[in-house]
Design a protein that fits this description.
It is a single chain. The chain is an alpha/beta fold and 375 residues long. It has 16 helices and 8 strands. The protein has helices at residues 2-6, 21-34, 49-54, 67-72, 87-98, 102-110, 112-119, 124-139, 152-169, 172-178, 194-207, 209-239, 255-270, 292-300, 310-344, 363-372; strands spanning 10-14, 39-43, 63-64, 80-84, 144-148, 245-251, 277-283, 349-354. An 8-stranded mixed beta sheet has the order 3-4-2-5-1-6-7-8, sandwiched between helices. Strand 6, helix 13 and strand 7 (277-283) form a beta-alpha-beta unit. The protein starts with a helix and ends with a helix.
């Protein structure tokens, strides 16, 4: 694992919700920091799971974990940093970079369409997060960046958002809508020829003429940003396909999770990205004994139970055996799903992390998880 982490600049952890993906990201980052790599672990998931996992608060500015947290994880101070990728800030930085005219920047930022695109449009937050990730790596302040993504369906948006938004903004329909009106000047419904005006005025009855004015004004101004927008989308896409980027898919050893993992692995391959490893989390340990008589004999051999009668021992051994049989069946099912995963993608590394005897609610337990992440 040390060699694996040393060869990477970015590690992206993906997977469905509730399987320990954020814990895996934090544990990997701690391992890298412990090995002497200056590491940032960050998230585009608005839920506060990463902050909870590390016991810290997250801001858009990469911040070293507190000294007490570093000590608990056996890290040198200043080696592990945390951040939440700020999508609004990432969009604003791109506009600032591309638009030299302060008045035009003000119009873009004040336009309600811009605010909608940067906050609610499907894929916009994922795209902006990739912008922020790209800028972080480009600044070269960290040896490794570990990214915790939202659940799998949104992670697909994260991968495809740059292309989708670039195609949307450069589409012929948008270009027609954003074209300057005849005679120059800014867009106005009143300045359109009768045919175009009739169509848009009818549309305006449903969405409001001010909305049409806002979207056209925004798109007209945004033409200045479009070149940089498309270029950055391609740069982000290329960056995620470099050999120093690894994708780890975290999942539970259950049939629906394996189905989703195989779907995501196929989508990655179609996108030209190789999945580095499956991390099968919370795998149950097989019981040592499942026969009632053997369990009873084992209990009788324990000195602290000498005061119990045979009937008392039997009353404990029988339900224990039934529970052990149920657990064996569960383990057999998990093994079948893991083998199905391995058979469907035999070249992908597969890691198993056992179900621990306690929740990952402390930094010490987080360190235990990291110990099992071994290639």
């Amino acid at each position: 694992m040390s060699d694996f982490l040393a060869a990477r600049r970015i590690v992206v952890c993906v997977g469905p919700g509730g399987v320990g993906k954020t814990t895996t990201a934090a544990a990997l980052a701690a391992r890298a920091a412990r090995a002497g790599r200056r590491t940032l672990v960050t998230t585009i998931d608005p839920a506060p799971r990463l902050a909870d996992a590390l016991g810290v608060s997250l801001t858009a500015t990469p911040t070293p974990v507190p000294v007490a947290v570093a000590a608990a994880l056996d890290l040198a101070p200043g080696m592990l940093h945390v951040a939440r990728l700020d999508t609004e800030q990432a969009f604003a930085a791109l506009v600032d970079e591309q638009v030299a005219d302060a008045e035009m920047r003000r119009r873009i930022f004040d336009n309600p369409i811009y605010r909608q695109i940067t906050t609610t449009l499907t894929g916009s937050q994922e795209y902006a997060a990739t912008l922020a990730l790209y800028d972080i790596v480009r600044k070269n302040e960290f040896d490794l960046v570990v990214l915790d993504t939202p659940p799998t369906a949104n992670a697909l948006d994260f991968l495809e958002a740059p292309k989708r938004l670039a195609e949307a903004i450069s589409s012929p329909a948008i270009q027609w809508f954003a074209r300057p009106p005849e005679g120059g000047g800014r867009f106005s419904l009143r300045s359109l020829r009768s045919g175009s005006a009739l169509v848009l005025k009818r549309l305006g009855k449903f969405v409001g003429s001010q909305f049409l004015e806002d979207i056209a004004a925004f798109l007209t101004d945004f033409q200045t940003v479009l070149g940089g927008f498309l270029e950055r989308a391609q740069s982000v896409s290329d960056r995620l396909r470099r050999p120093d980027v690894a994708f780890l898919l975290v999942l539970a050893p259950e049939a629906p999770a394996v189905d989703e993992a195989l779907y995501f692995e196929r989508r990655l391959r179609e996108a030209g990205i190789v999945l580095t490893a499956f991390v099968v989390n919370r795998v149950h340990a097989r019981p040592g004994l499942s026969d009632a008589d053997e369990l009873a004999a084992h209990l009788r051999a324990r000195g602290e139970l000498d005061d119990l009668s045979d009937a008392d021992i039997e009353s404990v051994a029988v339900p224990l055996a039934r529970t052990a049989v149920d657990l064996l069946q569960l383990c057999d099912g998990e093994d079948r799903e893991v083998e199905r995963l391995r058979g469907a993608s035999p070249t992908t590394t597969l890691l198993r992390v056992p179900l621990l005897d306690e929740d990952v609610a402390t930094l010490a337990t987080l360190g235990r998880v990291g110990a099992f992440l071994t290639l």
